[in-house]
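User: Please predict structures.

Assistant: First:
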Amino acid sequence: MTKQIHLAAHFPGVNNTTVWSDPRAGSQIDFASFAHLARTAERGKFDFFFLAEGLRLREMKGRIHDLDVVGRPESLTVLSALAAVTTHLGLAATVNSTFNEPYEVARRLASLDHLSGGRAAWNVVTSYDAFTGENFRRGGFLDEADRYTRAAEFLHTARELWDSWAQDAVTADAGAGAFVRDGDVGAFRHQGRHFDISGRFNAPRGPQGHPVIIQAGDSDEGREFAASDADVIFSRHSTLEEGRAFYRDVKRRLAAHGRRPEDLKILPAVTCVLGDTEEEAAERAAEIRRAQVSPQTAIAYLEGIWGRDLSAYDPDGPLPDVEPDLEVGVSKGRAQFRGDRGATVAKWRALAEEKRLSIRDLVIELSARQTFIGTPRAVADAIDLFVQTDASDGFIFVPHLTPTGLDDLVDKVVPLLQEKGVFRADYSGPTLRDHLGLAAPRTRQPT
């Protein structure tokens, strides 16, 4: 049976994907940029538009690391504005489950679901580092081992709040003088390890019942969390074989939670570079990668592994001859390297020697993500191959250029997928759950 492909778009902000210095690039903050990218995604009949979020400016050697995410507006605020300039496109926000509270997050997401007519989605993420926690005056309060248990309870509590209103609770019966069917709406009580709250939830149930839940994570805990409670999981895999292995592993976990394979969509984050010929696309992709990995970015990437100041080294020269500091970290606010630094450095040196790579060339090779490069026809065929052979259910495209980075994909590749009969010609329903083919959420009883 031919599978239908699901597509989504990610507005990345200033980071190591975006080439913000490109003369064609627009603002990363102005609403017009968000609106252009969202409208392009909707024109291409994409399932949803996704915004990530950072809760603190990242630092490198004690200074703001402006080669990564800097100064991005708050996601739910932006998406609420986008609800007014789109009609079908799903609107997905990253909201942290470590430094927020269930009541407020549930209320804001229910509000977005109402404002958008049932298009809200929540990417549930966690944080454990004290550096980010300083912004909330609770740095280090949560052990890393507890972040998924808190996230799971956070999500469960949010679901209880959404379920505290029946779908038909609001009647607005002027004749009877009753706005709600039952005066006891919104009552909730949750007692658990991380949250002990009770009261009345003041947001009526949204059109989708629950917003669509998205989760990202490749760890065993992350995969299990997605299998138990998520509607979408996005991942990062560079080959068909890796994608198929991840797909099999996550999908097999669903049965233990009373779920079907189609209840969870697997959408890796990818990039796309098009050309009139394969050679032109490859040349353009190489230019983009060098723009993404600037000399400063290359040195910063190595410093995160070496744990040392490497600013004296030439990015276009050989790898540092000093050994890594196995105890010290120089970056804050981003995922820290957890493996064996010594073994990693030895592996990198061997690779650089084998291929005669400079520091910058090595970082370009090491940091490449799954990318579709080629003519529109070749890219359409490659996307379809991944989906039809169960390496994914679709993709979240991360353009390198804001806000026009999706234009060619929508204009040149999407029509070919529609021609193949593997992608919708139009939206079949008003809600994001309709786009993704998801059933209504299961109602959870308060605990």
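Second:
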Amino acid sequence: MASLRVALLGCGVVGTEVARLLHEHADDLAARAGARLELAGIAVRRTGRVRDIPGAGPELFTTDARALVERDDVDLVVEVIGGIEPARGLLLAAMQRGASVVTANKALLAEDGVTLHTAAEKHGVDLYYEAAVAGAIPLLRPLRESLAGDRIKRVLGIVNGTTNYVLDRMDSEGSSFAEALEEAQSLGYAEADPTADIEGFDAAAKAAILAGIAFHSPVVAADVHREGIADVTAADVASAQAMNAVVKLLAICELSPDGQGVGVRVHPAMLPRTHPLASVRGAYNAVFVEAEAAGRLMFYGPGAGGAPTASAVLGDLVTAARNRIGDAVGPRGSWYADRPVRPMGETVTRYHISLDVDDRPGVLAAVAAVFAEHDVSIETVRQRAEGPDDAELVIVTHQATDDALAATVDGLTRLDTVRAVLSVMRVEGE
């Protein structure tokens, strides 16, 4: 049986699992790929660290990643170091030399995926990245291949396990945001610095990749409207519960009503408990796809972790190896539609607004007049007395543009009878 040589860039949690599985499942992988997959080398920052990886002796480790990817005997390159540079330069060098590439680098793909795809096509090699968006969940290949004959209208997903764990604990256990985050860190679901997750940067990068594939248009992370979950309060969660809803951080990619543009956004939202995504618990991920002919599809599973992510990497590696043996290449990047990303203000959505107001006659009429002024229709109103002359007013709107809703909230802050806007959150899933 022929052999293909694999260069592994990075040997952290995911890289270690990739190396381990390559060794432990060597015979099965060879049978599936049509060639034995042999490690040619592993690029690391420091070689002195002891790494207990079966089949990976010290002679395999190197700190010279550039020399490794440029070796003539390397057929396939796996990149799991993350970040923009040196990863971009290394992958471009590998493809220029004729090696196919498998990467889990969501940040790089969301910033410069078009360049990578262009290089892969120019040099006749593969570029696969299933592990970049939702860990072990088979998602990108179904979007890119299985649904290639359909028209995708919307992708709605929970694509960050850290934030889903935090919000789930706030909902199910009544934990505060700080308590839930601390617990996530203690269990390894959140980094010591959780900014990328909590502020939505991780989810925004994944949303850009999903939108680009789903709508055949170049989308970068900077195009994505992004809001994190740091401002979600116990009161927000309680308000959602009162509506039989749950708060989730959602990545939403959708065609505009006229089909000429795309909207891409990441933000917390209230989701009815009847929606399939509402039942996604803990650190799990799930993505809900709406297609014109196929209808509604849902993909669910572990979205992070060494072994699940390595599973996706190896799936791509086997596919790239098969193509190499068969002298073929996989699907190319598809940007033919080239739809522009619409501003967030044009997005049609709904709002849940909680107000601290004076409890006296005429307040509701004044509030309703502000909604009418901006052509925003009210769906429901709830009022609860908070004190002798103080009340909480909770309003859920019908659909309107985000600009109109934002202007409505701004107008409410100017009313003398509104003491404070306690919270504003979008409502999705209906």
